[in-house]
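cron nightly-structures :: item 1 of 1
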Amino acid sequence: MGIVLTRSAPSEQVREESLWFGAADRPLFGRLTSPVASTSRGGVLLSPPIDREARLARRALRSLAIFLAMDGYVSLRFDHYGTGDSSGSMDDEFDRSWVEGVDQGAALLRSLGIDSLSAVGMRIGATILGAAASAYDLRLSSVVMWDPCESGRAYLRELSALGALRRDVATPEVGEPDKMSEYVHSDDAARRLSEFHLGPPALRPLAERVLIVVREDRVVSSKFRTRWSSEHVEWTTTTEQGTMLETWLPLSVQPASTIAQIRKWLTEPAPVVAPFRELPRVTDAVVTKASNAYPVRESFVELGPQKMFGVLSESTGEAQGPLIVMVNGINEDHVGPSRLWVELARRWSGAGLRCVRFDLGELGESPWSPNQLERAVYDKTRPVDICDAVRALMPVNPADSVLIGLCSGAQLAIEAALELKSRGVCAINPQVGTSIFRSADRLEKSDREFVRSITLRLENFLKRHLWVGKAVRQVSRLVVSSAYSPRVRSALVKNGSEILVIASPDDLSPFPRMPILGSIDRRRLVSSEHCRVEIVPGLDHDFLGAIARDRAVTIVDEHVLEKFAGITP
């Protein structure tokens, strides 16, 4: 049976279920969104972007799925092979699996008894959808190509250009060429990706009707327009893609107008309302098999009173050690930056540990209202969410846990570890300014109307002037003597927690240009044998520099395996 995870607005109309589908040796993660009623007006397959764009677009595609369910449609969102929660990696032969995945998703919807099937593809997801339509007879009635990539090569060029703009946020070591990108593709992966091209299928039309949504601020090549000039193809523009995809996740603004436009276009035809079947859902799957590790099985869990969405990774062999908990940063989802939580959870579970990655309340795949289209600017999460998640999985002994957090998630992990008396905590790039911005959330809930009004105005101001927020963080570092409170550290050590702190050189001290003060801070930080501090040269706070990021991840990986799985690197 599937797991009903979203009971928020309006629960009487919409149901969401997580499932695995596709080939047994290459399972894909999917989310089925359907009306509560046993009838539907049709099915919609949602083909998402990849890499960081997948994380930025998650809320928009989920909003569209929920609205379509309210209109009577059954939709399937899924992660392409090697991305998100699906099995595999981009180092595999993913190109064939991507195309097969679209066909498998369409087959799943048709297995429910749905005859009228449409599809929506965003960015490279539209390109993959086009390739699948060339290889298979998908029999689609309507297709929306939402800001499509003309080719995989064009997508890689955009990714490279965006990385070049970020080179000012980190200073790699001399002589080390670095790639400033959250996702770095190997040469083989780039070659496979470059082979995707979005052109009309040669043997059959893509669909009976096609809507192409392009950005108003970008030029579409004449070649692409010519390819897609047809009486059954409509064109429209959007101004909302940049504010959704070309920013940091906490500041991503959801494209409400574009969602409404696509929703209206998809539901304009008057299909016949017909019953759809409830089929048994596959809620656990073996996602990795390696010769030198246990096979890893993953299952879906609901955590705490808020029924937060989570994925539990376990070996098929005998489990050992504490529960490893991945803690997200501001408005991050359970996949983690550069798919970090997915890959670490599967690696550590292959060594016998149990790992969970989850979405904090009202984020990612956890319950939230579909009318809540914009992500909050500030951290809306609380350490209590983390404690609830741990206690749901470890009700007898929640202290037998290790919390891993990045950036603001590191601070949340530290606070939760204090409450739980966890066996360990790994804090990667803890952020001093986090507590300042979380205070804004408390002010929003003040009993005094003028306080709420002022806070809302401040949030809107910082949305328009991002440099102000950055300045606030920098000023906070000038008035705080250390990014890591000695009092908190001492309390953790007293509780018996093993502490690992990984920081960039700039995060070590608020006085990076005063080496003496920085060295004093560092000596104070490593004063306890239970508190290990690693300053990673070249590491940037935003975790974008690929070389230094790999070093930091290696340190965390070896620490967890040695301390909690008894495996010496």
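cron nightly-structures :: done
The domain at 288-432+485-564 is CATH 3.40.50.1820 (Rossmann fold).
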